[in-house]
Recover the amino acids of this structure.
C-alpha cells in the first residue's frame, strides 16, 4: 500500500511539472486557444500568458497580441523543422519573457512585420531566431546561446532592428544576414561564436552595425562578403577575434567609422578584393596587421583619421593605390612607429610653426603614403547637434558702459546709438541639420525695434556666431566663434538663470598688454546653456591706462538672458499664448489672405477669453486648427502647419483641463552683441556699425 501511494505521488508530481497539450498549440485568429487545455490564459484576447511550462510548439494566427511567457519554459524535442513559436504573415505580435529551447527554430517569423521579440532566453536550438521575408520587426534584450548554427538568422528581410541582445557561444555565427537590407544591428554583446560575430552575406545593402561589443569569435568579428555594399559599421568595440572586420568578394562602398579594434590574431581590418570603402576614425591596436589588403583589386579605398597602435605590421598591401589622408589641414592617420618631426606647418609643411602634423610623409610602399601623419593619436571632435527647434526663443538684457578722461582715448567711444539698446531677442525660424535660421530683434529704449534675419551653422561657425553653439558639448570641446577660428570650452558648470539651475558651458580668456607708457587688460566670459546651446550670458571688458598722463579708458559690453520659453518657470496665460501665435504668424511673410484668415480666428478666440467664454474660445481654436490643415502644403509648409496646430491644441488642452502646460511659443528674435576693436587680440570679434541703429558682427 505504501509503495502504491509513493508511486502515485511521484506520478502526480511528474504530471504537474510537465504540462503537455498533446500537439501544436494555436492562438487562433478569433482569439481562442486550441486546445483549450493548453496552459495559456487570456482574459481579453490580447495578452496571452503562460501558466506553466509548455512542451509543444505554438502557432500564432492572430495579430495585435502579446504572448507573455511569464518566466516559463517552451521546450521541444529537437525534431527537424520544429519551431518553438511560428508567425506567418503576422503583425504587431509581441513575444516576451520565456525560455525557448530544443527546436530547429526557437522563433520563426515568415512574411511578418512590426513584431517584437524581447526579453527571452533562447538556447540549444538549431537557429535561435529566424526571419525570412519579414520587415520592421524588433529583436531586443534577448539571451541567445548554444545554437547549432546562428543565434539570429535573417534572410530576404528588411528594416528590422536587432539591439541589446546577448548572443554567445553559437556554433557558426552570432548574427547572420543574407540578401537583406536596411537592417539595424546595435548595442548587442556578441561573443565566443565558433565562426563570425556578425556575417553580412550576398547582396545585402545599407545595413547599419553600430555600438556592439564583439569579442572572442573564432573567425571574424564582422564579415561582409559577396557584393554586400553601402553598409555602415560604426562605433563598435571589436576585441580578440581572428580578424576584426573582413570585407571581401567585391563588397564595395562600405563605411567603417570610429570602431575600436584590438588584439586580433591576424588583421584588424582585412580588405580582400573590395574597392571604394571608407576606413575613418578607427583605432587598430596590437593586431598582427593593422590593415591587410592582399588583392590587386584592393584599391581606391579611403583611409584616414585612424590610429595605428603597436601592430606587428601596421599595413600590408598589394601596392595598389589607396588614399591615406584627407588633405591639409584635416590630416591623415596616427602611426605609433612614425619617427618624423613637427617643426613646420601648411599644405607643404614649409611654414613656420608646428601644427600637429608630421613634416614628412609616412611611407607604406611605392604606391601608398600618408602625406599628413599626425604626431599624436587622433580623437574625434564632439558631435555637434542642434539643440533648438522652431519657435524657441531667448530675450536678453543688454548693457554698454564707456568712460574715459583721456582727450584722445586709445579706445574710441562707440556710437551713441549703441547705448540706446535695451534688449536683444533671438527667435528660431527654421532648423535643417546643423543650420539654424533665426530672427534677431534689437529693442531700443525709445521703443523702436529693428529686426534682421540670419543663420548659424553650429558645426562650422558660419553665419552669425556666438549666440548658438552645438548642444550637449562639454569642457575641452571645440567651438567656432566664426568660420575661420576655433576655441575650446574651459569648463562645464551649473549657473542659475530665471530661477532655474542650468548646466552651462563657460569660455573665458584674459589678456594683458604692458608697455612703459600704457597698460591694457581685457577679458571675455561667455556662457551657453549646455542642453540647447543657447547663449545665456556674456561680458567683454577692457581697461586701458595711460601711465605717463594718468588717463584711464574703460569699456564694458554685457548681456544676460532674462526670458525664454525653454525653461521658464511661469508659463504664459491662454490669452498671452494665443497672442504670441499671432505674432509668430506675422513673422512668416505669408500671403495677406492666409495671414488675415488665421489671425482673425485667433483674435476672436482672445475676445472670447476676455469675456470669460472659454467654450467659444475652444470652438474658434478648433476652427483655427481646421483652417491650418486646409492650408497645409498650399500656403503653409508642413513645418509651419505642425507648429501652429500643435500650439493651438495645447491651448485647447489647458482650457479643457484647467491646468496650463508650458507652451513653447513666441515671436521673432535675433542679433548679436558686439565687442570693441581692442578685443581683436583676445577673441577676433569687433564692432562694425553699418547703420544708424543696426550692428553686425
Amino acid at each position: 500500500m505504501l509503495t502504491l501511494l509513493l508511486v502515485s505521488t511521484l506520478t502526480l508530481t511528474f504530471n504537474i511539472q510537465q504540462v503537455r497539450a498533446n500537439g501544436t498549440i494555436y492562438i487562433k485568429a478569433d482569439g481562442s486557444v486550441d486546445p483549450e487545455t493548453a496552459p495559456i490564459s487570456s482574459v481579453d484576447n490580447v495578452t496571452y500568458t503562460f501558466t506553466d511550462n509548455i512542451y509543444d510548439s505554438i502557432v500564432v494566427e492572430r495579430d495585435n497580441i502579446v504572448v507573455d511567457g511569464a518566466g516559463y519554459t517552451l521546450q521541444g524535442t529537437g525534431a527537424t523543422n520544429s519551431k518553438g513559436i511560428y508567425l506567418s504573415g503576422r503583425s504587431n505580435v509581441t513575444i516576451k519573457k520565456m525560455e525557448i529551447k530544443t527546436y530547429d527554430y526557437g522563433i520563426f517569423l515568415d512574411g511578418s512585420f512590426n513584431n517584437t521579440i524581447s526579453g527571452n532566453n533562447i538556447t540549444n536550438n538549431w537557429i535561435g531566431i529566424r526571419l525570412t521575408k519579414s520587415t520592421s520587426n524588433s529583436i531586443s534584450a534577448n539571451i541567445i546561446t548554444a545554437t547549432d548554427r546562428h543565434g539570429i538568422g535573417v534572410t530576404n528581410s528588411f528594416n528590422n532592428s536587432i539591439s541589446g541582445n546577448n548572443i554567445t557561444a553559437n556554433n557558426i555565427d552570432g548574427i547572420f544576414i543574407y540578401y537583406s537590407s536596411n537592417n539595424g544591428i546595435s548595442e548587442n554583446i556578441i561573443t565566443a561564436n565558433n565562426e563570425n560575430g556578425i556575417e553580412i552575406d550576398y547582396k545585402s545593402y545599407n545595413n547599419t552595425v553600430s555600438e556592439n561589443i564583439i569579442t572572442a569569435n573564432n573567425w571574424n568579428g564582422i564579415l561582409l562578403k559577396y557584393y554586400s555594399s553601402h553598409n555602415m559599421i560604426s562605433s563598435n568595440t571589436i576585441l580578440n577575434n581572428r580578424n576584426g572586420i573582413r570585407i571581401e568578394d567585391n563588397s564595395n562602398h562600405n563605411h567603417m567609422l570610429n570602431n575600436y579594434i584590438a588584439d586580433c590574431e591576424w588583421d584588424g581590418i582585412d580588405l580582400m578584393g573590395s574597392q571604394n570603402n571608407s576606413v575613418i576614425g578607427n583605432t587598430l591596436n596590437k593586431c598582427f596587421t593593422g590593415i591587410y589588403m592582399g588583392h590587386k583589386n584592393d584599391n581606391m579605398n579611403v583611409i584616414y583619421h585612424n590610429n595605428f597602435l603597436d601592430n606587428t605590421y601596421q599595413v600590408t598591401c598589394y601596392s595598389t593605390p589607396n588614399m591615406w589622408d584627407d588633405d591639409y589641414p584635416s590630416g591623415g592617420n596616427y602611426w605609433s612607429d612614425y619617427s618624423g618631426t613637427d617643426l613646420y606647418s601648411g599644405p607643404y609643411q614649409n611654414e613656420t610653426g608646428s601644427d600637429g602634423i608630421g613634416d614628412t610623409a609616412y611611407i607604406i610602399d611605392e604606391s601608398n603614403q600618408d602625406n599628413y601623419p599626425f604626431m599624436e593619436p587622433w580623437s574625434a571632435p564632439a558631435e555637434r547637434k542642434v539643440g533648438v527647434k522652431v519657435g524657441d526663443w531667448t530675450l536678453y538684457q543688454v548693457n554698454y558702459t564707456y568712460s574715459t578722461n583721456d582727450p584722445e582715448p586709445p579706445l574710441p567711444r562707440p556710437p551713441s546709438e549703441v547705448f540706446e539698446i535695451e534688449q536683444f531677442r533671438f527667435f528660431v525660424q527654421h532648423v535643417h541639420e546643423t543650420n539654424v535660421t533665426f530672427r534677431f530683434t534689437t529693442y531700443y529704449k525709445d521703443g523702436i525695434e529693428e529686426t534682421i534675419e540670419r543663420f548659424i551653422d553650429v558645426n562650422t561657425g558660419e553665419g552669425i556666431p556666438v549666440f548658438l553653439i552645438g548642444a550637449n558639448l562639454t569642457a575641452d570641446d571645440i567651438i567656432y566663434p566664426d568660420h575661420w577660428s576655433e576655441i575650446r570650452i574651459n569648463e562645464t558648470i551649473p549657473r542659475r538663470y530665471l530661477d532655474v539651475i542650468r548646466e552651462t558651458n563657460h569660455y573665458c580668456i584674459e589678456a594683458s598688454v604692458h608697455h612703459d607708457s600704457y597698460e591694457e587688460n581685457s577679458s571675455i566670459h561667455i556662457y551657453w546653456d549646455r542642453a540647447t546651446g543657447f547663449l545665456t550670458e556674456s561680458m567683454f571688458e577692457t581697461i586701458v591706462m595711460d601711465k605717463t598722463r594718468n588717463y584711464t579708458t574703460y569699456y564694458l559690453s554685457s548681456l544676460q538672458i532674462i526670458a525664454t520659453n525653454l525653461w521658464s518657470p511661469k508659463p504664459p496665460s491662454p490669452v498671452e499664448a494665443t497672442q504670441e501665435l499671432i505674432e509668430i504668424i506675422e513673422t512668416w511673410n505669408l500671403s495677406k489672405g492666409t495671414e488675415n484668415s488665421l489671425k482673425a480666428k485667433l483674435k476672436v478666440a482672445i475676445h472670447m477669453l476676455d469675456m470669460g467664454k472659454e467654450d467659444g474660445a475652444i470652438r474658434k481654436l478648433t476652427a483655427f486648427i481646421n483652417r491650418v490643415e486646409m492650408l497645409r502644403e498650399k500656403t503653409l509648409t508642413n513645418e509651419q502647419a505642425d507648429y501652429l496646430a500643435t500650439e493651438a491644441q495645447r491651448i485647447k488642452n489647458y482650457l479643457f483641463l484647467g491646468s496650463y502646460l508650458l507652451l513653447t511659443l513666441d515671436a521673432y528674435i535675433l542679433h548679436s552683441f558686439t565687442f570693441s576693436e581692442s578685443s581683436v587680440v583676445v577673441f577676433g570679434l569687433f564692432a562694425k556699425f553699418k547703420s544708424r541703429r543696426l550692428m553686425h558682427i
In short: Residues 574-657 form one domain. The two ends are 102 Å apart (CA to CA). The helical segments are 2-17, 574-586, 592-610, 614-631, 638-657.
